Amino acid sequence: MSRKFRFGVTGRGDTLAEWREFARKAEALGYATLVLPDHFARQLAPIPALTAAAQASSTLRLGTLVLDNDFRHPASLAKELATLDLLSEGRLEIGIGTGSQPRDNEQAGLALDPPGVRYERLAETLTILDACFANDQVNFDGKHYQLHEFMSYPRPVQRRVPLMLGARGPRMLRLAGRRADIIGVMGGAEANQAEQLAIVRAAAGDRFDSIEFNQLYLHVSIDSHSSGLPGFRGPALAGSRDQVAERLLELRERELVSYVVVIGTAIDAFAPIVARLSGT
Questions:
Q1: pTM over 0.70
Q2: In the predicted model, is pLDDT for residue 225 greater than 60?
Q3: How much is the pLDDT for 121?
Q4: Which residues lie below 8 Å from residue 15, measured CB to CB, with a gap of 6+?
Q5: Which of 115, 161, 167, 209 is 20 to 30 A removed from 126 (C-alpha atoms)?
Q6: Is the pLDDT score of 231 beyond 90?
Q7: CA–CA dist 89, 171 (Å, integer)
Q8: Does the pLDDT at position 85 exceed 70?
Q9: Is 188 within 8 Å of 168 (Cβ atoms)?
Q10: Which CATH superfamily is domain 8-277 in?
């Protein structure tokens, strides 16, 4: 299957006017998605902010990259996400994970449980979300969550709200292969990307070709225009427009990545790449 490029950008804005203008700009420049992370930091809360962005746009898809499962009960989360999908007329993409920054838990006084426990809770959350999106009433008796005759309203507009999971280790890679529509395969110095993709492929089976692979870049430098988080260490895009385009083509060939998200401060510098590669 040929995976076609699409591009997203992380949202920016400290006021309603700034936020709406950023959403309109992202849509006008051809970005497919506007996304927000989920941290106790200097950022807007993702679900209400994306709801506001929906009212300022018409085609822009709205994604969480990614929600921290520790922050919300899955029943409440299901209601909020279904409402966002309804109010955006079916433009939601759900990214959710076990949490990537322990400092968030420390700030909020939330227990940081062992990885195995957080994995179990995430798996239960995914089952609850699916059930709430498909049924009027949900009963669930899990190890970590219990729902009793839970009224699941509203229903999302989309028959299947796209799910994104980030994954590095075998356990999360298998879960992502079985459940996710979009996967951010997280590398690292010790990661073997080919082995990671092989785990996803085995878990996904016949649905592997329909899975979209994602890469988030929080440092982008194109034609000397540099944007990034201070002190951030992670994947970076740097070079001329031609060099960056060529690198993304190579990344798709090698690691199947066709859904690329860049930091919001790079929205203008990266726009020519969006225009060149989107849909190809």
A1: yes
A2: yes
A3: 97
A4: none
A5: 209
A6: no
A7: 34
A8: yes
A9: yes
A10: Luciferase-like domain (3.20.20.30)
